[in-house]
Design a protein that fits this description.
216 residues
Amino acid sequence: MPYSSILTLTLGVLIAGIAAAEIRDLAASTWAYLVHSLCLAGTFAAFAVITHSPQLYWWVLAAVLTKVVFIPLVLRWYIVKHPATELRPTLDYRVSLLVVAIVLMLFFKLVHTHMADVAPTEAARSNLAVAFTVFAVGLYILATRRNAVKNVIGVCLLENGAHLALVVLAPAQPETALLGIATSIVITVWILIYITSGVHKIIGTPDTLKLSELRG
């Protein structure tokens, strides 16, 4: 399996992650996140094959169970009970796509210019740039989205970007899979959705900007 196949999978991680961020229909956004997670798990599996690192298969299994199965099911559970369309984002989607494109170009420039020692091959630098961009998209969602489901997806993208960078930088290290599994935020996602569902019942909206109404 050539490294080009890993780059294809990581591009799938990026494209599906952007789709999960930008699609306003929350059910479709959840499906995009599922595809994003499948591509991420596939990336872990590809690194396991190329680097002959069997410990990564445990990470693949954990990623499938948590990111591909559990988290989309929790999001689906929330969507069934609440409005299925995202609240209007703070920024127009065209502005969002422009920001993401600029961030991607900046990270590619940064990684390919200044990180040759950390990522010695062209493929590794490209994959690392994608990982940083996915992380940045997660931050961007948290900063600009008002909907609770999108905020949860943003948190998940933060984690997935960090995990992608981890496997790109140290795929053959036994500690890589252990660290990746140990830092899963699946419980955090469940707690966030559970609390948000309760808040929605109290204030009648999933708008996170209105949480200040709970004071007093």
